[in-house]
Write a structure and sequence with these properties.
Helix content: 25-40%
Strand order of the largest sheet: 8-9-10-11
Strand content: 15-25%
Radius of gyration: 18 Å
Distance between the termini: 21 Å
Structural class: alpha+beta
Number of strands: 11
Shape: globular
Amino acid sequence: IFDKAYGFSDVDKGVKAISGTKYKIGSVTNMFTSAVIFQLIEEKKLTLNTKLSEFYPQIKNADSITIGQLLNHKSGIRDYTSDPDFDKFKSQLQTKKKMLDRIASYDPAFKTDTKAEFSNSNYLLLSYIIEDITKQPYKGNVITRVIKKAGLKNTYYFSKINPLKKEAYSYKLNEGEWQKEGEWHESVMEGAGGFQSTSADLSEFIKQLFDGKIIAKESLAQVINMDMGYGKGVFQFPFGERRFYGHNGAIEGFAAVVGYYSKDVISIAITANGLDYDLND
C-alpha cells in the first residue's frame, strides 16, 4: 500500500536512502531465530520442555531452564549486553566459547519462571543450540529455512557495512549534528540481532509467518501465546484499537519494528538508521 524512504544512508557523502537500502534490524532477528527453533520442534529434534542443561550445563540453573523459557524470556539469564565490559568487546570477533564462558559467569537476574525480562542472552543461546542440532552455522539455517523459503531478496547476515551493497551506516544526534556510530561485530549478536533487512522484506516475512508458510499454524499459536507480556519471539503492541504482533530492535544507531494484524491483513515495518524521537511514537 505504501513504501517510502527518507533521509540518507550515508550522511557524509550525501547518499539518499531508497526503498532497497538495508538496515540492521537488531532484535527483530529474534523472530527468525524463533521460526527456526519451531521448525526443529516440528522435526522432533527439540521440544519446548527440553532443558538447557542438555546443551550447556555450565550455565547457572541450566537444569531448570527450558527452550520455551528461553523463547519467552523467563529464563532469568542475565543479558550480556548489560555487561560493564560490553562496550569493550562488542566490536571484536567473539568465539562461541568466549560468549558461553561469559554468560556462564553471570549470576541469574531472577529465579527462572518467576517473571519475564528481555535478555539477548536467551536468543544468542538459541542460535548456538540451532548450530549444535543441525551441525550447520546459525546464519545458514536462517537463510535456507526462512529467507529462501519466504523469497526475501534483501535480508542477510550483516558484516562490515558496505555502501556499494546499499547498506546504510547508522547515526546518533549529538548537539544538533549526526555522528556516525561505531560498528558491532556480527559474532556478538548471532540469533539475538545478526541480520539486516528492508521494511518491504520484513513486511513480507511476517505475513508469510502468519500465513503458515514458514512454521505450522500450531507452532504459530505457541509463538503468539502471551505470557507475562512476551510471546515466543514476538511482542503484542497497540496501534489505535488494534493489537499487532511483531518485534522491535535496536543496534548501533539502527532501529527497526515490524508488526502484523491478521484481521485486516496489514503489516507495518520501519527500518531506520538515525532517530531523534521515540520509534514507538
